[in-house]
Amino acid sequence: MNRRQVLLGAAAVMGAAACGAPSGNDRLRYWNLFGGGDGVRMVELIDAFAASRPDLDVKASTLTWGPPYYTKLSMAAAGGRAPDVAILHLARLSSFAPGRLLDPFPQELLTAAGITPDRFLPAIWDRCVVDGQVYAIPLDTHPFVMYYNTELCRRLGLIGAGGDLVPLRGADDLVAAWSEARKLTGGYGLVLDTFGVSPWRLWWTLYRQLDGDLLTEDATALVIDDAKALQALDFMRRLSVTDAVAPGQMLLSGAVALFGSGKAAFLFNGEWEVTTFQTQKTPFSMVPFPEVFPGTSTDGIARTQADCHTFVLPHQRGRTAEGSRAALDYVRFMLDRSVDWAEGGHVPAWLPATRSAEYLALDPQSRYRDAAATAQLDPPAWFSGSASNMETLAGSAFGAVQAGTLTPEAGLARFKADMQRLIDTPAPV
């Protein structure tokens, strides 16, 4: 048996055990990967939906984030006995072989539910469409952003008359601000994770600000611009080695702890730590990722790495229109409550929510909403996306550059070699 046959056979057994019979109009099975504060908020929303639909038997399962989740979801879908609806990172859509592991949303049901392209950002919606069919519906965008301690920044003279952070543009201005912040804190000016996927998020943000591309459209070849890639890596090395305003080696938990305790004035991270710092009563706010290389992108905007949580229909044998309608009812319910979901930090994908007074009143959540329009998802490939092999390998190579154990040239060479191996590996499905 080849690899695909083993996968399909195992999936059939697992799917049958996990999900039972295909769904109808009287039940809804939902899988997600939300933990922590996100998980608590999602449970509240699921309970609210269940209460609003006593005619549906609603059961939600929260699985382990990352590779375990995606392995189980792909196996259940390959067996055709998956949950009725599930969460998928948009950057991983191509790895789920739309049409094989995912079923499309029926267009007539989307129209009836009012889920139309004009209610989402075009660049995000376009990634959800494959061969003219909609395979994903965006819930949110979660961009890489910059947190700042408002009290420390006020002492540094970085808070303007209106109470906002003064604009910081360009590598030199940013490093200068972080250098002064380090003197004030006695710790670091800037903190970030250097062991996980944050090195990938930082490098991809910087590289895309320089207009760099990574893969051909069909993901069969590298098109890395070495000069731009090294410019991004040189800046990353500058942070921790040359100017030493940020740590060379630090876990995400350490970065969050230092920023939360006032030992660092700035933090690069995803926006999901909002409730952490609100609970700790840290004086903080947030802005989109700064423009490190002004004027270098063709569209003149400060691009930033991001991904999106989306709803998908994992493949089911005998999926019915009633089952799809129940799933879409749930999706629409969640979209209508996007402001509740946004309290945890994510930027709503549903444009009616981002334009609402309720969302605009959220502080600091609404302050970085424009980052969704500059979101740079991973390039489409079977090996890319959140919790993917590509992000893990990139984090290792670029994290070593930040730590000072690899030169930018050596880090780039390692990443390119790893990427070529991924390209040369046949897609598992």
From TrEMBL:
InterPro entries: Bact_solute-bd_prot1, SBP. Signal peptide: none annotated. It holds the Pfam family SBP_bac_8. It comes from the Bacteria. The keyword Transport applies. The keyword Iron-sulfur does not apply. Keywords: Sugar transport, Transport. This is Multiple sugar transport system substrate-binding protein.
